[in-house]
Amino acid sequence: MNTNIIILAAGRGKRMESTLPKVLVPFMGVPMIKHVIKNTMNISTKTVIVVGYKQKLVEDELKQFDLKFVTQNEQLGTAHAVLITEHVFKGYNGDIIILFGDSPLISKSVIQNLIKFHKNNKYISSILTKDSETPGGAARIIRNKDGTFMKSIENKDLQLEEHKNIKEINVGVMIINSTILFETLKKVNNNNSQNEYYLPDVINILSQNNDIGVFKSTLNEIPELFAFNTLSELKQAEKIYIL
Question: In 3D, which of 205, 111, 190 has the Cα closest to residue 152?
Answer without folding.
Answer: 205
